[in-house]
Design brief:
Structural class: alpha/beta
Largest sheet: 4 strands, antiparallel
CATH superfamily of one domain: Isoleucyl-tRNA Synthetase, Domain 1
Bound molecules: arginine
Radius of gyration: 28 Å
Distance between the termini: 32 Å
CATH architecture of one domain: Orthogonal Bundle
Helix content: 40-55%
Number of helices: 21
Strand order of the largest sheet: 1-2-4-3
Shape: globular
Length: 568
């Protein structure tokens, strides 16, 4: 059930009946005294028609009150402020959705999601955490809504640094155990590269060998990539990220398409030479001085660029994968890059008009000091170390609450709580802002955190256990009678609205805010509406509400990639 869509439809139909036109702009009410939803569009509609907004609001209410469908949905409407309409939903209308089934979309799309994409020259570090966690949540939501999702892990597995790495690997006798610590390996080879002229020269030759398809070089490169990728897969598995080897479509996969990209740009009349390089000049990319900034697609030495590969990828996604929509979860610092390649792809016909191309940027991860998140020594934080620390801290927390806990149980809880906290604290912030990584905040049992929601879930399960009912035997529906019951039911019913919003806009924090508010409404309900001591019908009704809240919390957290436990 999509409450917002239903209300929008009805109110806009009422506008039309009144000879008016415009959007209803339905929003969840910000305070209980404003009802459950507000229609905020009346003012603009009235203004355009030269009418008094409060009069128009009253006319809309009068029209809708006579409509049987609408009357079944809504129990009260009133004009508020300068011309808002406050809407209160009928208990019988929100009751059927207590089963919290996810409605699949009527128009399923093929959505390509480009996320994670670490550079395989190094080990995965905190810089890849946000794209990986946020991308995976949106993938889960899209799939739950019935879309066909094609994950594309556009890993950085090609480029000049591999010449250096392979030469260093060769010098160390091709001992692949050296790659167990990729970070050290990278640092050591870079140092060698900077200090040793002969090494530099051999590295350059290795790049040429690799690029010209030399079998030996390719085999060594493949070995390197496989090991590096298995580091990443360990992290994915540990974090419950749904990426696998099947989703890897790295930069190197497009090598054979790059010459064709240049040809196609040329045939489209888009290619121009500048200082020996092949470039595309598009009017919309002017700098402050009014000069057009070119998109370089081939350097004067014949080398291709990151942009060229991305153009090949767009073409692949449009033509081979037949995508309707492509989402890129990539750092905000690459915004200009994506604007440019999207524009070039459109101009060259790689991306048809109907294909939606969306860069969904995110900000930088900062430490508590407001500076980019680093180790105490100022080094890059490896993801594996960060996740170890999360589990360690969560274990300490659990032990504090429950000193006698059995070790297996402790390890399990530490993982669920620790990793859940890391994910949730990222997902719950608006992704476009920079985000401050703060252990104490994310592991707190108060406020908008994973432990709070996990605890809320386990508390509901304990209520159900204490009630000694089989949850499966409870009726599917419960029509609220008391106001805290009704407010909880209304919110459970809004579950599908929020999923739709996450799918449309790619902001997981909407879902987090929803779950937090849901848990808060449950708490109010639980305080004001005793469950266990009440009479039969009331007790059943309230148990159904509790059970449904638990289902919504569990499903919602699952879509965020976070687990729950029955007991905490
Ligand atoms: N490997 C790149 C980086 O770490 C991200 C790739 C994003 N995807 C893309 N199609 N460009 O910056």
């Amino acid at each position: 059930m999509h409450i917002k869509a239903l209300l929008t439809q009805q109110i806009e139909a009422a506008f039309a009946d009144l000879g008016l036109q415009g959007s209803a702009v339905i929003q969840a009410a910000s305070r209980p005294e404003f009802g459950d939803y507000q229609a905020n569009g009346v003012m603009a509609v009235a203004k355009r028609a030269g009418l008094n907004p409060r009069d128009v609001a009253a006319d809309v209410i009068a029209k809708l009150s006579g409509d049987a469908d609408f009357a079944a949905m809504v129990s009260a409407m009133e004009v508020a402020g300068p011309g808002f309409i406050n809407i209160t939903l009928a208990p019988s209308f929100v009751a059927p959705s207590l089963a919290t089934a996810i409605d699949t979309c009527a128009t399923a799309q093929t959505v390509v999601v480009d996320y994670s994409a670490p550079n395989l020259a190094k080990e995965m570090h905190v810089g890849h955490l946000r794209t990986t966690i946020i991308g995976d949540c949106v993938v889960r939501v899209l799939e739950a809504l019935g879309h066909t999702v094609i994950r594309q892990n556009h890993v950085g597995d090609w480029g000049t640094q591999f010449g250096m790495l392979l030469t260093y690997l060769e010098d160390s006798g091709n001992a692949s155990d050296k790659l167990a610590d990729l970070e050290n390996f990278y640092r050591a080879s870079k140092q060698r590269f900077d200090e040793d002229e002969d090494f530099r020269e051999r590295s350059r030759r290795a790049v040429v060998a690799l690029q010209s398809g030399d079998a030996n070089a390719l085999q060594q490169w493949q070995q390197f990539i496989d090991i590096s990728m298995s580091h990443c897969q360990d992290i994915y598995d540990r974090l419950g990220i749904t990426l696998s080897a099947d989703n890897i479509m790295g930069e190197s996969a497009y090598n054979d398409d790059l010459a064709g990209v240049i040809d196609a740009l040329d045939s489209a009349g888009l290619l121009q030479q500048s200082d020996g390089a092949d470039c595309v000049f598009l009017d919309q990319f002017k700098n402050k001085e009014g000069d057009i900034q070119p998109v370089i697609v081939r350097k004067s030495d014949g080398g291709y660029l990151y942009a060229t590969t991305d153009l090949a990828a767009i073409s692949h996604r449009a033509k081979r994968l037949e995508a309707d929509r492509v989402l890129y979860f990539v750092d905000a610092r690459q915004s200009l890059h994506f604007k440019q390649i999207f524009a070039v792809a459109r101009a060259a016909g790689f991306a048809p008009e109907a294909l939606q191309l969306e860069h969904l940027p995110f900000g930088t991860m900062l430490g508590k000091d407001g500076k980019p998140f680093k180790t105490r020594q100022g080094g890059i934080i490896k993801l594996a170390d960060l996740l170890d620390e999360a589990e360690r801290r969560a274990a300490a927390l659990v032990r504090e609450k429950n000193p006698d806990i059995e070790p297996g149980q402790l390890a399990h809880l530490a993982k669920v709580i620790g990793l859940g906290a890391v994910k949730y604290s990222d997902l719950s912030k608006n992704r476009t802002s920079d985000y401050v990584f703060d252990w104490d905040q994310m592991l707190s049992f108060d406020g908008n955190t994973a432990p709070y929601l996990q605890y809320a879930y386990s508390r509901i399960q304990s209520v159900l256990r204490k009630a000694e009912v089989d949850p499966a035997q409870l009726p599917r529906e419960a029509i609220a009678e008391d106001e805290p019951e009704r407010r909880l039911a209304v919110y459970i019913a809004a579950f599908n609205d929020v999923l739709q919003q996450v799918a449309d806009e790619g902001y997981p924090h909407y879902l987090c805010a929803y779950l937090y508010e849901l848990a808060t409404r449950f708490t109010t309900f639980y305080e004001q509406c005793p469950i266990l001591g009440s009479d039969d019908a009331q007790r059943t009704r309230r148990l159904v509400l509790a059970k449904s809240t638990g289902i919504a919390l569990q499903k919602g957290l699952d879509l965020l990639g976070i687990d729950v436990v029955e007991q905490m």
